[in-house]
């Protein structure tokens, strides 16, 4: 019996290991186990070194969207992989369902011949930077400037597309290239503030060869003093202000949410989180429990940041091509950072890991990629003081606004983007993007504003330092399924109306004019062009008791739109940013607004230029709302040497979705007795 017993234990442990690695939810990201299986299969078909092989993207190929009303997702599980094999791009899908788990079957294997290239891998960027640093003419340029070669930090910049035609036979500078530009970290950790202007090394990533070099101008490198942001390097007396004593959020009874695999449940909410190399955080199947109806209701099938477009406004040789597509070129997930307790997330946070795929196809663990926490920031959810009833005591009613935040941070080179998805008990979802980190600055001879007689494309922030103007356009993919899949988009405008007859002493009032968008072309919205547009996604077949159509509103952030000409190359590639809101019918392959292959793309497979031009029917259909928000970043001295967070965001808010205020009956629970300081009213 004994040996058998041991064997049974062994099998049992083995099973636990397997099950902990196998996903349990059909929308879970690929597990390390699955990534390994895919890698093994691909190495079998394209064994290196015979084939030059690199993995540029691996992720879950979305399971077919359920057609039923229950979001019951089928158990098919497919991986989508983008490879470079012998300098060509391959798109491969593999079947990962249980029967073929150990040897995934190739479903499709397509060679991509169109414009654009897949996301850059971290490994090839590092190699390109090293290559540039060791390149003879480059080291000579560095010594010529009197800089120390071992203090140089180099970075590869995507090159965009400026009208070049893709030729059959490639010439120099026509492949998958990056422009490597360098900085010195002599005297500071903040090398971004010490750019070496004028020197560019162009590297072909497939050949891993230097294919171009320019040393065009010599510009004084700004000094390092005063640029270091580490606490130990600060040298400013703080004796004239009161020190802060620190704040913590404590939950002595523990958090009120639970995480089951990747499903999060908190008060009335339930949703799924997953992690993707390209877009980072993905929220799926968000639903809310409606106490009045006694049922769980669907809101958001899927939401994520589809693209972040950042064009700089300097047209000179070393700068004109700096028009980044952070998701499509670099990957918001690839560049996510492990969240640090206390630094990035409060004490009551819960953390979650994610997995990426390396250049060679290995799974890479991203520890603490998300944190989830409840937030109470002294905000009032609702309140009222009633003092007008004769012969009655004043009554005070109020509820604290306790919310749940899911956070991910991506550091795209110099910039840090803080993505927060915040859930409110009232049914709102607020998405906030905080931008902080370091500006991309340009070296200049100028040390004072009065010396400047030319266009400098930015603000002089410090001696020899220009903070270049730029934009951040952040585009969200929001697949709302309000109370079911078939939804319509309604845009409403407020219209001033004149009183024509003498029925009132008033001469005017405003009223709401609404239109249901029938086709994609009816739903293109420039915010700010008409007074306060209300934008709703409604379920035309569901109405409240009093007859209003149930829906959710998009409450946008400040209106921004590109200030580039339509035929300017970066604008052609990011044409979808022209409208703040676009609606498309759900299509499994339309996820990434800037197209599948964004690096050096020509803008020919994108949300606006291709997808919405089909002008499909969108009324009473499964629709996706694309929302582009952003900031025009005019730089200021306070952004130097590291900028305080600037935030922008939007809200999805119930609109005749509930019969009444859904948060009236919430209880106010305090975990323990609180000592109130100098409070003179009695506390019950
Ligand atoms: C890649 O190139 C090698 C060497 O030329 C060749 O043996 C191999 O078949 C090529 N692979 C593919 C997928 O074309
Ligand atoms: C700190 O500042 C003072 C006065 O500006 C200066 O004399 C001193 O050298 C500085 N110390 C460091 C470590 O930079
Ligand atoms: C005056 O106009 C309002 C609407 O503008 C209408 O409701 C009302 O019936 C009119 N009254 C008369 C007396 O015509
Ligand atoms: C779905 O999107 C893909 C890629 O844009 C396109 O080829 C296909 O025709 C679309 N399908 C429909 C029904 O629009
Ligand atoms: C509270 O009130 C006392 C007496 O009025 C005062 O001395 C003290 O500074 C106050 N505390 C705070 C934190 O304001
Ligand atoms: Cu900025």
TrEMBL record:
Keywords: Copper, Metal-binding, Oxidoreductase, Signal, TPQ
Gene Ontology BP, a term: response to jasmonic acid
UniProt-listed SUPFAM superfamilies: Amine oxidase catalytic domain (SSF49998), Amine oxidase N-terminal region (SSF54416)
Domain Copper amine oxidase N2-terminal: 25-100
Cofactor(s) needed: Cu cation
Pfam family, one: Cu_amine_oxidN3
InterPro entries tied to this protein: Cu_Am_Ox_Cu-bd, Cu_Am_ox_TPQ-bd, Cu_amine_oxidase, Cu_amine_oxidase_C, Cu_amine_oxidase_C_sf, Cu_amine_oxidase_N-reg, Cu_amine_oxidase_N2, Cu_amine_oxidase_N3
UniProt entry tagged with the keyword Acyltransferase: no
Signal peptide: 1-24
Enzyme class: oxidoreductase
EC number per UniProt: 1.4.3.-
Domain (Copper amine oxidase catalytic) ranges: 249-664
Modifications after synthesis and translation: Topaquinone (TPQ) is generated by copper-dependent autoxidation of a specific tyrosyl residue.
Entry's cofactor comment: Contains 1 topaquinone per subunit.
Residues in Copper amine oxidase N3-terminal domain copies: 118-219
Family: Belongs to the copper/topaquinone oxidase family.
Protein name: Amine oxidase
Organism of derivation: Spinacia oleracea
